[in-house]
Design brief:
Blueprint (H helix, E strand, L loop, with lengths): L10 H28 L22 E3 L2 E3 L4 H23 L4 H23 L4 H5 L3 H24 L1 H4 L3 H21 L5 H33 L1
Antiparallel strand pairs: 1-2
């Protein structure tokens, strides 16, 4: 007799929600980033040198020797919150295909990613963070997002069999997740800030894209074989 604790959702149902949600995370994040970066009006935004969070900062002026001016900051903030919600939804869907620690861990990491991106959006970097003492909330959002997103890639890779994902994708997921986690402590301080942050950010987005496509492809293959 099968109990509810061990019942897994069919792969096609998982792909129906998780695959498109993960791809949407990538599209929402990158499209909003490109639009908001191109709208900077006092100087060009630098993907290499500028903090990622400057895109979502309503502050306009000089901050610690850096000129910030992001007229569409609100669009980036909305995109981060939407991306976090999509990541949480995808993780919950993936977790329904799993049991035990894998289910709990993937669901928790997706929820943590959502919380992190909300903090990242609501407490953007700027003078206000030092004036009102909320800098720790910005830092919590920034680092939790990197940790949760890349850890999600690793745990998903370790769970590839019950998720019906290819072994080669599992290897890629674990590798890029490890790169994303190790990048900040290994490069921060001697690699330009924007580049250092984006290595860890884009590693997570690359995992989301590859995994989302694999889930959709797997579901489509099962439909054709029926």
């Amino acid at each position: 007799m099968t109990t509810s604790s061990t019942t897994a959702t069919p792969p096609r149902v998982v792909a129906r929600w998780a695959g498109p949600a993960l791809i949407a995370v990538v599209l929402v994040s990158l499209i909003a980033e490109a639009i908001v970066a191109s709208a900077w009006d006092r100087r060009p935004y630098s993907y290499i040198d500028d903090y990622v969070n400057f895109l979502g900062s309503p502050f306009a002026g000089e901050f610690r020797g850096v000129l910030i001016s992001s007229p569409l900051w609100w669009l980036m903030s909305i995109a981060w919150i939407v991306a976090g919600a999509l990541a949480a939804a995808a993780s919950i869907a993936l977790g329904r295909r799993l049991t035990g620690w894998r289910r709990r861990t993937i669901t928790a990491l997706g929820s943590a990613q959502a919380i992190a991106l909300i903090l990242f959006a609501v407490f953007p970097l700027g003078p206000a963070r030092f004036d009102d003492g909320t800098l720790p909330l910005y830092l919590a959002g920034a680092f939790l997002s990197i940790i949760a997103g890349n850890a999600l890639a690793i745990v998903t890779g370790l769970s590839h069999r019950p998720l019906g994902l290819p072994r080669r994708l599992a290897i890629v997921s674990i590798t890029i997740g490890a790169i994303g986690l190790l990048n900040i402590p290994l490069t921060y301080g001697w690699v330009p800030t924007g580049l250092a942050e984006r290595i860890s950010l884009y590693s997570y987005l690359l995992w989301a894209l590859l995994t989302g496509l694999a889930l959709i492809r797997s579901a489509a293959g099962k439909v054709r074989n029926q």
